[in-house]
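During the no-cost extension, the postdoctoral fellow (Dr. R.K.) reprocessed legacy sequence entries with the updated structure-token encoder. One reprocessed record is reproduced below for audit purposes.
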Amino acid sequence: MKGLGVKRLLIKNARVVSPGVGICPGALLIEDGKIANIHPLSSAVDLTDVETLDAADRLLTPGLIDMHTHGVRHFLYDNGPDDLRQALQCVPAYGCTCTVPTLVATGSPDMLERIGTLADALQETPGATAPGLHLEGPFMAETGAACKRMAGDTVLLDELIAACQGRLAIMSISPETANIIPVIEHLNEAGVVPFMTHTRADVEQTEAAIAAGARHATHFYDVFYPLEETDEGVRPVACVEAILADRDVSVDFICDGVHVHPAAIRMSLWAKGFEQMMLITDSSMGAGLPAGEYDTPWGFRITVVPGKGARIIGPHEHAGALAGSSLTMNQGVANLLDWLDIPPEQVWAMATSNPARVLGLQTKGTVEVGTDADLVLWNDDLTPRRTWVGGECVFQDESNTDERVDR
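Re-encoded structure tokens follow.
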């Protein structure tokens, strides 16, 4: 898709979404990969050598940011650099301009080498940008998605950070894991964001993890298990309630309608406010593919059915079980717009400015002068018409190839 960008581009007649703020008619001037001006354009702006795209009153938003994703279509990040490169070229077709490839840190002998190879590949990826890696594990208390149970170990943590060569952005941990507090503190010192997940933690364990610096919960409600009721009539309070009760803790959801019921998302919205809510895909192989059956590298086949996720096909002991999410970011936004009775600009914030804030990406997720020109022009059905990364058009809807960019 390279070569579709221009040095200076004026996108006019758009409905520009400022996440969390509003939606207004306007225009954007892109120059050298940045947003150089916003309508109304300053009279001092030189437009003599600018190409112009008429947005025809379509929505123009910041690019979507996915903090938790294992793959897309036929590609899995854990498979290695080739899959990583190809996946990052695919996701702009779903409006995603920035993603954090998620790897399952299994504790296997080749783990450090495998992670290092993928960290190297981040420097040369086309398509969406990848500010770092997300390690799901290895310091987990509950299994799932191939995660292993392992006590906190700051020596191993240092080895993982070194293997990532300064490109570890996120590590998911369980609050009740033995020796996890030093791990959380060390992650914060290293500039790595700790995410809570895969947990049966009680209130005290969860609050201790939060106090140590774990202030985000990923794929919230999924593998956040309740405690067993031991005193009949007394409902136990545990990790979910502790997280909902703390307004300083942000949460993200797999918004496919399968992994978590929309009612739980609406409840969390009232507890958190839209500023502390985020959308992720947790996507795996099969995401973005048409309905059908597909092979996987795990020795079984999956069936992808819209609205039902990706599921294992028999004969298999877990036939019918979910095999990860088949969600794409644009469909997640569409679902939230349908489920939540809030202004649409607040929903867009959940996929743009909010994750950018959690990740510390100061030049992404907003429409402001000087920020990266990571943008999406949307069709009415919330499929991207064009996607730009750093001012370069990396995706164009093939049904609109005759759309003119005038000089």
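The chain has a mean pLDDT of 92. DSSP finds ten helices and 22 strands in the chain. The remaining legacy entries will be reprocessed before the final report is submitted.
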